[in-house]
Amino acid sequence: MDLFTFDFIQFRFVDLIDILIVAYIIYRLLTLVKGTRSAQMISGLVLVFSLAFIAFWFQLEGLMWLFSNLATVGFIVLVIVFQPEIRGMLAQMGHSRLFRAMSRYEGTRIIDEISRAAVRLAELKYGGLIVVERTVGLKNFIETGKALNAQLSSEVIITLFTPYTPLHDGAVIVSGDFLSAAACTLPLTKNPRYRKLYGMRHKAAIGVTEESDAIAVVISEETGEVSIAYQGLLDRGIDRAEFRNKLAEYFKK
Question: Which letter does DSSP use for residue 34 in this model?
Fold first, then answer.
């Protein structure tokens, strides 16, 4: 079905759908890279594509040959360079309403145990990092730590993060109703917004949530401050009395 015809151009309904889909994909990509190191790379890519357009428009043989030969290699390079952003986008796409409904933990015990542990660690000023696995698996990160497969409990979490105990460094990963592993190594955020503001635990909390749909709870050993990281953003300095309610809100997302 044609929406309108202008001279030799026919604009069909399917063309409108095509344009809207492409516009949405571009919008999502720009949203993902905004404020990250990839934002500068996007600017460079715009310049390269502009040069390619000029080359083919004016039939500049030398540049056309160069861009034609670099096209395949360039695509592979782009996938490698933007791997974290692509992984994050696919994770968000898979985290639909249906998947969210399926992945919500039944009952309130998990939220209660994590909340009690976080608040107590904050009171003691013990540093801690608790990562809750959701629909995107964290197996790669679990394998970097010490396997536990222990029943989730606030007492165990507090013990794990007690200073000078063997597993107090790194992150604890929660999978369902179990503590999967402790002393896990997580990727650090490369977002320049956070690079100079926070310590290693906070950067790791943000980093793991950039690459998955996990929820990360981080406790500062310097200030006793409790924060929650989700989708690459840090909700900092949450009041201890309100922490459980705030954590429950993130579990609903």
Answer: T
181 contacts 167 by C-beta, under 8 angstroms: no
Write down how long the chain is.
Answer: 253
How far is Cα 83 from Cα 87, in angstroms, rounded to an integer?
6
DSSP 77-96: HHHHHTHHHHHHHHHHHH--
> Where does CATH 3.40.1700.10 sit in the chain?
100-251
- The pLDDT of residue 97 is 46
Q: What is the largest CA-CA distance in the chain?
A: 77
Residue 216 — very low, low, confident or very high, per pLDDT cuts 50/70/90? very high
**Fold assignment, 100-251:** YojJ-like (1 (3.40.1700)
Residue 243 CB neighbours (<10 A): 20
Burial class (CB in 10 A: 0-12, 13-18, 19+), 204: buried
Instruction: Give SS3 for 45.
Output: helix
- What angle, 0 to 180 degrees and rounded to 10, lies between the N-to-C axes of helices 61-81 and 38-57? 160
Model pLDDT for residues 76-105, shown as the tens digit of each residue: 766 666 666 566 556 555 554 444 443 444
Tell me the C-alpha distance between 230 and 192, whole Å: 17
